[in-house]
Amino acid sequence: MPAAPHHPENTVRALIESPHVSAATRAALLDRLETAAQPYTPQFFDADTFALLQAVCARLLPQPERAAPIEVAPRIDERLAAGLSDGWRYDVLPPDREAYRLGLGGIQQEAQAQFGQPFAQLAPEQQDETLRRVQQATAAGAAWQTLDGPRFFEELLAEATALYYQHPLAQEEIGYVGMADLPAWTRIGLDEREDREPQPIQP
């Protein structure tokens, strides 16, 4: 049987394997690590629209350099393919599947209208300007005549952010250790740190 991987002390990955984390929580976090590393084929979007979603998410959530980025687009695609939702939506937005199709199409329309190129081919500052126009309700294109741009932008950003920070490596970036709650927390004063909490990694 192969040896378990060794993770440096004071990292979230090491903490996941510790007795401070419940078995159910450990299983969920390790599944997220493993799932994120697997190749993904879109189930809901066609290949071009999925690539657009990936490009949009990459601008909404710029990531530090790492061996592989944390991909949130596959989790959005999976949810839409399964027809899942969080049980509510703004009354100015259509159901999620329609909203995503319209919204991503509208982002592409805005990119073409302003810069004459698909969103994924734009420079980063042009991509930011495209998304800013959607957020500010100044984007061009027929999609925004029927879809509320600011609300769509808000929903997309919220979902992408939630998915990103569900991932253990993103949690490690911000020093989040809330999953290690079996022993309870005793050092709760300002700037106090439990022994099991990760320490900042020195460059």
Largest sheet: none
Give the low-pLDDT segments: 1-7
Shape: elongated
Instruction: State the helicity in percent bands.
Output: 40-55%
> Which structural class fits the helix and strand makeup?
mainly alpha
Distance between the termini: 35 Å
Rounded mean pLDDT is 89
Order of helices and strands: HHHHHHHHH
- Total number of helical segments? 9
**How many beta strands in the DSSP annotation?**
0
Radius of gyration: 20 Å
Relative strand content:
under 5%
Protein name: Gluconate 2-dehydrogenase subunit 3 family protein
Pfam families: Gluconate_2-dh3 (PF13618)
Structure summary:
This protein is mainly alpha-helical and 203 residues long. Helix content is 50%, strand content 0%. Helix 5 (96-115) packs across helix 6.
Secondary-structure topology with pairs:
Layout (H helix, E strand, L loop, with lengths): L11 H5 L6 H14 L10 H14 L12 H10 L13 H20 L8 H12 L7 H4 L2 H17 L2 H6 L30
Describe the structure.
- With 203 residues, the chain is mostly helical.
- It has a domain at 40-173.
- Helix content is 50%, strand content 0%.
- It contains 9 helices and no strands.
- Helix 5 (96-115) crosses helix 6 (124-135).
- The radius of gyration is 20 Å and the shape is elongated.
- The model is unreliable at 1-7 (pLDDT under 50).
- InterPro entries: Gluconate_2DH_su3 (IPR027056).
Write a concise keyword list for the protein shown above.
Gluconate_2DH_su3; Gluconate 2-dehydrogenase subunit 3 family protein; disordered N terminus; 9 helices; mainly alpha; 203 residues; 0% strand
